[in-house]
């Protein structure tokens, strides 16, 4: 049998590709995460739907048994490179990143390799538009939309997956199809919540936009993390305000760097509404000397929240965003899940007792406020968790550039992981399921069922659709939808 490498060189000689032994292979498989260690069969970067089709034909003709799809490359478990135990041909979508904004229809049509940051900038520049999405703007839209897309404007504008109108895909047999509410509706249902890379290659997406807020602001309010007496009072006050504030108030409660904080965005459209909401915050939130308001435009709210305060402090500007490789290598772990009901006093007390033991840096708990009454019905998409008040995540991150060497980075990361796991176990009894966008093999530890956590009652239907569209399980990794 002819090798995949020989076939793709013969049939698609002009497209970017890299194989073991090539000088480009290390860079082509590089990841920002130290934990992502995998050895793909090869990496090819098609530039069109037709080239994706031919790559899949080459793979099938060569007897390849695993295809992985890489967009932004932000799978924590390395699924976009085939996973830790994978031996995949990687279809890298990095060349397919065109963005077309239709201002009259309020839509964006983007390639399967488009990064959320690129779409954010272009939507804003071409009409003051926005797409609600995740907090990290270096992720790929094609991957994030299959997981949910929960971010700083979610309470006002919902989640990214509910904005998807249409996709073009290449299936395991090499055929190109359209999926929307009328064409291949079962496939359209499945990709909206099944996680990444189970059903085929998304080559193009059309998403509904909305006008960005005309008079927004960022807010950063901090309280010292000192003792178990003040924490419960403050946390309960932050929760009470968040649950009862206008939907233009988009909060995230954060515990890190020796502070309990509430931060986020005000999605207000007039200066009058913005100033009234700021006054209300000052009146009703617990008093503090660290109360910062940034009255900036929408794009700057995203830059501050997505780059400066959270996920990517190494980017100076949104236009600098690109797929990360190893320039900011880090040991990082996230465990995330949904909280259906408001936190009880008993839970808050338990959280307080653990929170005050938090290391001064390298570990974070963040709790994103949602509107439980917004979004599509639970059976309209494969998203398991609807109607939740909060999406929580606890994370550790140690950057190589902050320490002397990799061994030190790993040792510090493992120390922080212990605290992270203890924090997650406090949350676990009240979670309604994990968040597949922060993929985590450990969701199946302690005798738990990882697939039930992520997909719940939707799993049987997802499996049936998998058998229909990918009966040979060509698109797979450890967290993809199984055949049975």
Would you tell me which CATH topology of the largest domain applies? Vanillyl-alcohol Oxidase, Chain A, domain 3
CATH architecture of the largest domain: 3-Layer(aba) Sandwich
Task: Assess the beta-strand content as a share of residues.
Answer: 15-25%
How widely separated are the two ends? 30 Å
Major sheet size, sense and barrel closure: 8 strands, antiparallel
Q: Based on helices, strands and strand pairing, what is the structural class?
A: alpha+beta
Overall pLDDT metric:
95
Low-pLDDT parts are none
Broad shape: globular
Q: Any idea what the radius of gyration is? A: 22 Å
Q: In which range does the helix fraction lie?
A: 25-40%
Cross-sheet strand order for the largest sheet: 15-12-14-13-17-18-16-19
Total strands: 19
- Domain count, please report it: 3
Count of DSSP helices? Answer: 14
Text of the CATH class of the largest domain: Alpha Beta
What would you say this structure looks like, in words?
This protein is an alpha+beta fold and 484 residues long. It has 3 domains: 4-94, Uridine Diphospho-n-acetylenolpyruvylglucosamine Reductase, domain 3; 95-212, 2-Layer Sandwich (Uridine Diphospho-n-acetylenolpyruvylglucosamine Reductase, domain 3), CATH 3.30.465; 217-444, Vanillyl-alcohol Oxidase, Chain A, domain 3, CATH 3.40.462.20. The chain contains 14 helices and 19 strands. The protein has helices spanning 4-11, 25-28, 49-61, 116-125, 141-144, 154-157, 185-191, 230-244, 271-284, 298-308, 345-355, 406-427, 450-455, 459-469; strands at 17-18, 42-44, 67-70, 89-92, 99-102, 107-111, 129-130, 164-170, 176-179, 201-208, 210-211, 217-224, 249-256, 259-266, 290-294, 330-339, 363-369, 390-399, 431-434. The strands form 4 sheets. Strands 15-12-14-13-17-18-16-19 form an 8-stranded antiparallel beta sheet, with helices on both faces. Strands 5-6-10-8-9 form a 5-stranded antiparallel beta sheet. Strands 1-2-4-3 form a 4-stranded mixed beta sheet, with helices on one face. Strand 8 (164-170) and strand 9 (176-179) form a beta hairpin. Helix 8 (230-244) crosses helix 11 (345-355). The model has no long low-confidence stretch (mean pLDDT 95).
């Amino acid at each position: 049998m002819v090798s995949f490498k020989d076939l793709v060189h013969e049939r698609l000689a002009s497209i970017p590709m890299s194989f073991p032994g090539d000088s480009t292979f290390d860079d082509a498989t590089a990841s920002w995460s130290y934990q992502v260690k995998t050895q793909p069969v090869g990496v090819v970067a098609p530039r069109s739907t037709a080239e994706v089709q031919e790559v899949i034909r080459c793979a099938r003709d060569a007897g390849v048994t695993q295809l992985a799809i890489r967009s932004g490359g932000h799978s924590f478990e390395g699924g976009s490179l085939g996973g830790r135990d994978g031996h995949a041909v990687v279809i890298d979508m990095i060349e397919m990143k065109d963005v077309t904004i239709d201002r009259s229809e309020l839509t964006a049509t983007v390639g399967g390799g488009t990064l959320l940051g690129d779409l954010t900038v272009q939507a804003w520049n071409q009409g003051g538009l926005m797409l609600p999405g995740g907090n990290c703007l270096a992720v790929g839209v094609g991957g994030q939309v299959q997981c949910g897309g929960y971010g700083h404007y979610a309470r006002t504008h919902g989640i990214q997956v509910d904005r998807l109108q249409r996709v073009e895909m290449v299936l395991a047999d090499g055929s190109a199809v359209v999926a929307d509410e009328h064409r291949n509706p079962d496939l359209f249902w499945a990709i909206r919540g099944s996680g990444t890379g189970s059903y085929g290659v998304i080559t193009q997406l059309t998403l509904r936009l909305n006008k960005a807020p005309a008079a927004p602001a960022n807010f950063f309010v901090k309280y010292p993390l000192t003792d178990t007496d003040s924490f419960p009072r403050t946390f309960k006050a932050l929760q009470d305000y968040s649950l009862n504030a206008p939907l233009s108030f988009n909060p995230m409660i954060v515990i890190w760097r020796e502070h309990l904080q509430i931060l986020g965005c005000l999605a207000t459209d007039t200066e009058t509404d913005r100033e009234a909401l700021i006054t209300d915050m000052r009146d009703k939130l617990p008093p503090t000397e660290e109360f910062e308001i940034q009255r900036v435009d929408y794009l700057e709210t995203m830059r501050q929240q997505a780059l400066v305060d959270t996920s990517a402090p190494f980017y100076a500007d949104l236009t600098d965003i690109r797929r990360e490789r190893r320039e900011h290598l880090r040991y990082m772990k996230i465990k995330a899940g949904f909280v259906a009901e408001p936190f009880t006093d008993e839970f808050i007390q338990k959280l307080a007792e653990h929170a005050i033991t938090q290391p001064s840096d390298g570990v974070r708990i963040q709790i994103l406020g949602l509107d439980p009454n917004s979004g599509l019905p639970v059976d309209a998409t494969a998203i398991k968790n609807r109607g939740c008040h909060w999406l929580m995540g606890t994370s550790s991150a140690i950057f190589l550039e902050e320490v002397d060497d990799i061994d030190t980075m790993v040792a510090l990361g493992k120390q922080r992981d212990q605290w992270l796991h203890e924090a997650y176990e406090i949350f676990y009894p009240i979670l309604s399921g994990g968040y597949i966008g922060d993929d985590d093999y450990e969701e199946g530890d302690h005798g738990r069922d990882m697939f039930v956590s992520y997909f719940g009652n939707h799993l049987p239907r997802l499996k049936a659709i998998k058998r229909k569209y990918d009966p040979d399980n060509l698109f797979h990794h450890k967290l993809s939808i199984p055949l049975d």
